[in-house]
């Protein structure tokens, strides 16, 4: 039987799908639309999603028919398998992302060396020490001011407490990592 690709496979066994890899004809978007029956808007969308194409200096597209049909068939196979092929990134995008990440890392390291950035662990240690100082002042406040509050009226007690609290808040606000 002509076109039979089973070559001795038993009934019920699966065979690998192979697509033609020959070179097709390079055509314009309009010609590909006519050949495939696909509208130009969809063809442009496919190109954005990674369909093989060349952009000419005048902005027009040249598309190899065999490469495009191979790409489109692979998309359909992936879709049937439940693979989202539009989420794949190209090697060029992966390289660009890696270069951006490396540049950002180098910038962070430079800013750390210049003293413009500090590791979060160091900041937490300094902040914890500052909070510890405030806690110690709060805990010692009753013993420190008890004598000065004795025999004072309510207005004077309030003034003394406000002064103590404002001094602690000022010290805490001057925290520098």
Describe this structure in words.
This protein is 60% helix and 5% strand. It is mostly helical. The chain folds into 3 domains: 26-87, Arc Repressor Mutant, subunit A, CATH 1.10.10; 89-118; 120-173, no CATH class. The chain has a 3-stranded antiparallel β-sheet. Strand 2 (54-55) and strand 3 (61-64) form a beta hairpin. Helix 5 (120-149) runs antiparallel to helix 6 (154-173). The radius of gyration is 36 Å and the shape is rod-shaped. The N and C termini lie far apart (81 Å).
What topology does this entry show?
Layout (H helix, E strand, L loop, with lengths): L25 E3 H8 L3 H9 L5 E2 L5 E4 H17 L9 H23 L6 H30 L4 H20 L4
Antiparallel strand pairs: 1-3, 2-3
Helix pairs in contact: 5-6
Briefly characterize the structure.
This protein has 177 residues and is mainly alpha-helical. Helices cover 60% and strands 5% of the residues. It contains six helices and three strands, in the order βααββαααα.
Integer count of domains = 3
Q: What value does the average pLDDT take?
A: 80
Bulk shape:
rod-shaped
CATH class of the largest domain equals Mainly Alpha
Order of helices and strands: EHHEEHHHH
CATH topology of the largest domain: Arc Repressor Mutant, subunit A
Q: Which strand order do you get reading across the main beta sheet?
A: 1-3-2
Unreliable spans: 1-16
Q: Count the strands?
A: 3
* DSSP strand content: 5-15%
Ends: how far apart?
A: 81 Å
**Largest sheet geometry:** 3 strands, antiparallel
The share of residues in helices is: 55-70%
């Amino acid at each position: 039987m002509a076109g039979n690709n089973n070559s001795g496979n038993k009934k019920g066994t699966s065979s690998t799908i192979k697509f033609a890899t020959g070179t097709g004809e390079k055509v314009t978007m309009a010609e590909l639309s006519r050949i495939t029956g696909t509208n130009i808007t969809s063809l442009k969308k496919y190109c954005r999603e990674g369909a093989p194409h060349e952009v000419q200096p005048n902005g027009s597209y040249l598309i190899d028919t065999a490469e495009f049909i191979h790409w489109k068939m692979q998309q359909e196979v992936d879709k049937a398998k439940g693979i989202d092929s539009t989420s794949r990134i190209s090697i060029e995008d992966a390289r660009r992302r890696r270069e951006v990440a490396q540049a950002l890392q180098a910038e962070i390291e430079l800013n750390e060396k210049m003293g413009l950035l500090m590791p979060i662990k160091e900041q937490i240690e300094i902040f914890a020490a500052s909070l510890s100082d405030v806690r110690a002042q709060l805990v010692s406040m009753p013993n420190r001011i008890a004598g000065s509050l004795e025999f004072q009226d309510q207005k004077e007690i309030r003034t003394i407490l406000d002064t103590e609290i404002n001094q602690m808040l000022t010290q805490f606000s001057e925290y520098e990592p």
